[in-house]
Write a structure and sequence with these properties.
Blueprint lengths: L1 E3 L3 H12 L5 E3 L13 E2 L3 H7 L3 H6 L3 E3 L1 E5 L5 E5 L13 E3 L2 H15 L2 E3 L2 E8 L5 E8 L4 E5 L3 E3 L6 H6 L2 E3 L5 E9 L7 E7 L2 E9 L2 E9 L9 H11 L2 H7 L3 E2 L4 E3 L4 E3 L3 E2 L2 E3 L5 E2 L7 H21 L3 H34 L1 H13 L1 H11 L6 H4 L1 H7 L3
Helix pairs in contact: 1-4, 1-8, 8-9, 9-10, 10-11
Length: about 400
Amino acid sequence: MIVVGGGPAGSSTAWHLARRGIDVMVVDRARFPRDKPCAEYLSPEASRLLDAMGALGDCERAGAAHLAGMTVRSPNGALLRGDFAAAHGFRGFRDRGLALRRSLLDAILLERARIAGAQVVEEERVTGLVRNARGAVAGVEVLDARGQSAVRRADIVVGADGLRSVVARRLGLSRAQRRPRRIAMIAHYRGVDGMGAYGEMHVERDGYAGIADVGGGLTNVAVVAPAARVKRAAGAAAAFFDGWLRAHPHIGARLARAERVDAVRATGPFAHHARRAWARGAALVGDAADFYDPFTGEGIYAALRGGELVAPHIANALDARSPTDADAALAAYDAERRRTFRGKWRVERLVSLAVAVPALMNRAARTLGRRKDMADLFVGVAGDFVPPSEILSLRYLLRLLAT
């Protein structure tokens, strides 16, 4: 077994496989610890998966910040606040979310995979796939840090290599969606004014910003804007990021005395979706399979959950008596994945629509600002412990858009 990618999706997949006694190797082009542009938010339900992997305590000791809920500001200044611990009757694994720098989180998760028995190969870039006589994936082509190429054979290859997954592209499964095409620019600051126990989302007519404490006295600041407006040339994304923050004084003023401690990193465009999350001898997990928009903070939870979902199906494929049975096992993973995430995907698309239409966002924020019970349900869905059906119901949506 080879898992391509050592981020949360790859580490979760490798841990769950190794715990089943399966021989698994993780291959990543980076050397850990390494930074990764990300909002760095972990929902309350992500803690269940961290706890199962034995990583929750390590994240706490690394200084993860605790988030009590989320606040959202609409373009006209209307505010709503939702709490993870609320009176709606749904409870997450914990009453708070976490936020932790990816340089710390990813190293912790990869170490848990090692402890479980996975072999980890760093600074080795996967450049292609190896096929057998029936066209099934049978390994990967790699290039090491010295420029030496090699082939690594495997019964099954898992692509957990993110937005621009080499595995998904070589399989011909990855496809970009036309809308929304957004790019995120992210940096860390020390000394941001007014930070509290809530993550913040600030929606404007020309994009949105996310702000959250990530522990160690640092704040993650992310700006997400239409890709067509953001040039990716050296320094251009940083200039756009700084200009966007200055153009919105209610955010920029809070950064006036803060120190940016690292470079602005860009990632995206988002909105891509694999036609399916498997092929003969291969499966896709996490962002390699699907990523729509970062507003609801789905990424890390979906990556960890994806590893948990795929492992038993891979075990079934490895034990299969025939290639047809192995294909059926991987197809069953894709079906379960769609059932698991379908509701959240619908929520993400509705939120993206609201973000793109200021009048719609203003109306929804005005309603949720008055109706704390509805705001708590929305934030609970974003926290992955309230069923998406609670806010996809006709009754909720009609109340949301009421004048």
